[in-house]
TrEMBL record:
Keyword set includes Nucleus: yes
Coiled coil regions, renumbered to chain: none
Protein name, per record: RCK N-terminal domain-containing protein
Subcellular location: Nucleus membrane
Primary location group: nucleus
Keyword Ubl conjugation set for record: no
Record key words, sorted: Ion channel, Ion transport, Membrane, Nucleus, Transmembrane, Transmembrane helix, Transport
GO BP: monoatomic ion transmembrane transport; potassium ion transport
Originating organism: Escallonia herrerae
Length: 768
């Protein structure tokens, strides 16, 4: 009994000891949980103060807004009120300006609102809970970041404050989501509208938009095909999506070339920087559609903007102009960076050349375009010391036609003397398929082919007056290339030419025709411009009709799309008829083409009905694929009588007429696009084209084969070339009598073949 009692007492003492230890540990935990620093312990009055402060700060914006509204109303109701903007509108305006001017204002305002919400929410929670201020601020952030955290709150006060903070957090994150969405949308919208910067170099930059752009892009793509494709950047004052859609409609095969469109103005330096203008290898400025003077004025301002680029220009500028008179200004502004192509002048001179030599337009299309053979200039050190007559037969896959003489400051000499010796630094101008398809080889053995003696009448002496001064006046006076022998001159015969329509440069065309045509030729002008006004326009353009030597002008007034007006003309007696894109409608390509097409069809129909012995001619057949009794067939038959050259602005109309074969050839803006692309690829080619289209120097001719050979004679192409050199000519191709197209830079130049006197040769020769 005593033993049991002793054991129970011992157990009781152990339990008391354990109870004392537990009480001691609880006291330590309570002390550790107290806030440190100056022994500060928050009390109930401090929590109430925090709650009041949070409510006061929250109500200040509402009170301030009511005060501003009250002040505005009181000022409007006063008798001495002077009309002025209310205070609340002024505050709203200042806030709007702040948010608009400063790019980071919206994110900064959102950050401030978030911090205020966390701070006010933390103070409110500190006032309604027993937690510390740090814990309340952290709890406030969790309510802002996750609105579901308020579900754990207990009590009316904490729940009310938690719901309020969560509601503010939802507003904060909604605004943040809106800002992020707007930023992403603006970025994609900027990409869609072409406002982003082009990070490229050695690209071709095209400034402007016109109907020539499609053909230009096609030619640039063909030129870059051998390089695996290139980069072409187009910048115009149009929407990027519209430009890409219009280019896609053309369905061109760009052959690996990438076309990048950007929306912007070439007159704004920031937009030019956006397309990396300083790193482009060539900049093409397209002439705008519309008035010629306005288009050239805009091109001039564009050149001014390009010359003002701080980083400078790596490449050259190719400017398309509409009026020859504005060329001097553009070159004055652009200096050595600028090459100009006067579209109107090029088309006008080509029309004259093609009217006098049917088939020449196809030759020009082959040479200007990159699809066949074109001009290339390259240095070949192994040819130094050779005479030009040996250089001519040194390239089996190309035809040399000139030299870029280093001793003459890099001047390109077309058709030089056979005795010209290539010096160090000289480059050779050739016609070849591509820049990597030709190279000089060992000189072949060419059989001596004596020239066939054909007596030609001597050229009559001429008296020439040079009015004005040109920088190349010395080259015009000193014809150091040599003169053509008198008995090699092809005699000229009188011609009768009709011009339908009126162009801005009509006086230039008349002067060129007066220089080209034989004495006694007639030039008929048929348009709706009154005769007195016509003479005044020609006089204002610098033409003195009384000083014309070889041609006489015959004026007829009428509308070229009215049949009875055209029937008053002797259409069957003209050697050549030139249908011009009339000045009155040239601003609209479709309207100008419609007018030209109507004139062409009417002329061919009238000619067909006036043809003598139509039944006899039908029995012998004629070119074309239409039936002999059809209306189209009669017009094709009429095309055998006279040459009609039509000026067409839209390439689609050109393709239509080419298939119908009722016009000998159609000249369009496509040739201008080819010239622009060629000059963009190599600016030196512009000097070659300028000489071909000038009134002096060399040009392309189509010669009859009887000037070089007899019927059935077997000669190689090199032997024909050798005979042509006795006439100071370079043969670049031929067209056989039964062929539709000419062959430029023919292969197998040293192989013998039989020729016919009905064949023709394409040569480079001095203008006669």
């Amino acid at each position: 009994m005593i033993l049991v009692r002793f054991v129970l007492q011992d157990k009781i003492s152990q339990l008391n000891t354990r109870l004392q230890v537990c009480n001691l540990l609880e006291s330590v935990d309570f002390i550790a949980s107290l806030p440190q620093g100056n022994g500060y312990v928050p009390n109930k009055s401090l929590k109430n103060s925090a709650l009041v402060v949070s409510l006061t700060l929250l109500s200040i914006p509402f009170l301030l807004f009511k005060y501003v509204d009250h002040v505005s109303k009181s000022r409007r109701s006063s008798d001495n009120f002077i009309e002025e903007v209310s205070l609340n509108k002024q505050l709203a305006y200042r806030v709007d300006v702040f948010l608009s001017v400063h790019p980071y204002a919206k994110p900064l305002a959102l950050l401030v609102a978030t911090l205020l919400l966390i701070g006010l929410g933390g103070l409110a929670l500190f006032g309604v809970t027993n937690d510390s201020l740090a814990d309340c601020l952290w709890l406030s952030w969790t309510h802002v970041a996750d609105s579901g955290n308020h579900a754990n709150s207990e009590g009316i006060g904490p729940r009310l404050v938690s719901v309020s903070i969560s509601f503010g957090g939802m507003l904060i994150f909604a605004m943040m989501l809106g800002l992020v969405t707007d930023a992403i949308s603006e970025k994609f919208d900027s990409l869609r509208k072409g406002k982003s910067e082009v990070v490229k170099q050695n690209h071709t930059l095209v400034l402007g938009w016109s109907d020539k752009l499609g053909s230009l892009l096609n030619q640039l793509a063909i030129a870059n095909e051998s390089l695996g494709g290139g980069i072409v950047v187009v910048m115009a004052e149009r929407e990027k999506e519209d430009m890409e859609l219009d280019i896609a409609k053309k369905e061109f095969d760009f052959r690996g070339t990438s076309v990048i469109c950007r929306s912007g103005s070439p007159l704004i330096l920031a937009d030019l920087k956006k397309v990396s203008v300083s790193k482009a290898r060539a900049v093409i400025v397209l002439a705008g559609d519309g008035n010629a003077d306005q288009s050239d004025a805009r091109a001039l301002r564009t050149v001014l903007s390009l010359t003002g680029v701080k980083e400078g220009l790596r490449g050259h500028i190719v400017v398309e102009l509409s009026d020859l008179d504005n060329e001097v200004l553009v070159k004055l502004v652009g200096g050595d960076h600028v090459e100009t192509v006067v579209a109107h002048d090029v088309i006008g001179r080509l029309m004259i050349q093609c009217a006098r030599q049917p088939g020449l337009a196809q030759i020009w299309e082959d040479i200007l375009g990159f699809e066949n053979c074109e001009f290339y200039i390259k240095r070949w050190p192994q040819l130094d010391g050779l005479q030009f007559e040996d250089v001519l037969i040194s390239f089996p896959d190309a035809i040399p036609c000139g030299v870029k003489a280093a001793s003459c400051g890099g001047k390109i000499i077309l058709n030089p003397d056979d005795s010209y010796v290539l010096q160090e630094g000289d480059e050779v101008l050739v016609i070849a398929e591509d820049d990597d398809t030709y190279a000089p080889t060992a000189l072949p053995t060419v059989k001596e082919a004596p020239f066939i003696h054909i007596t030609r009448p001597a050229r009559k002496p001429q008296k020439i007056l040079l009015c004005g001064w040109r920088r190349d006046i010395d080259d015009m006076i000193v014809v150091w290339r040599g003169h053509l022998p008198k008995d090699f001159i092809v005699p000229k015969s009188m011609e009768k030419i009709l011009l339908c329509g009126w162009r801005r440069d009509m006086e230039d065309m008349i002067m060129v025709l007066d220089a080209f045509l034989a004495h006694g030729s007639e030039l008929w002008m048929f348009n709706d411009v009154p005769e007195q006004k016509r003479e005044r326009k020609l006089s204002d353009g610098g033409l003195d009709i009384n000083r014309l030597v070889n041609i006489s002008l015959v004026n007829r007034e009428g509308n070229a799309v009215i049949r009875r007006h055209l029937e008053s003309l002797p259409l069957e007696s003209f050697d050549s008829i030139l249908i011009l894109a009339d000045e009155a409608v040239e601003d609209s390509a479709i309207q100008a083409d419609s007018r030209s097409l109507a004139t062409l069809l009417l002329i061919r129909d009238i000619q067909a009905k006036r043809l003598p012995c139509r039944e006899d001619m039908n029995s012998h057949g004629y070119r074309g694929s239409f039936s002999q009794g059809s209306w189209m067939g009669e017009m094709q038959q009429a095309s055998d009588k006279s040459v009609i050259i039509s000026e067409i602005l839209d390439p689609r109309t050109k393709n239509l007429l080419s298939m119908s074969k009722i016009s000998d050839y159609v000249l369009s803006n496509e040739l201008v696009s080819m010239a622009l692309a060629m000059v963009a690829e190599d600016r030196q080619i512009n000097d070659v084209l300028e000489e071909f289209f000038a009134e002096e120097g060399n040009e392309l001719h189509i010669r009859q084969a009887d000037l070089y050979l007899r019927e059935g004679e077997e000669l190689s192409f090199y032997e024909v070339l050798s005979r042509a050199r006795q006439r100071r000519e370079i043969v670049i191709g031929y067209r056989l009598a039964n062929a539709e197209k000419a062959v430029i830079n023919p292969p197998a130049k040293n192989e013998q073949r039989s020729w016919s006197e009905k064949d023709v040769f394409v040569v480079i020769a001095e203008k006669e």
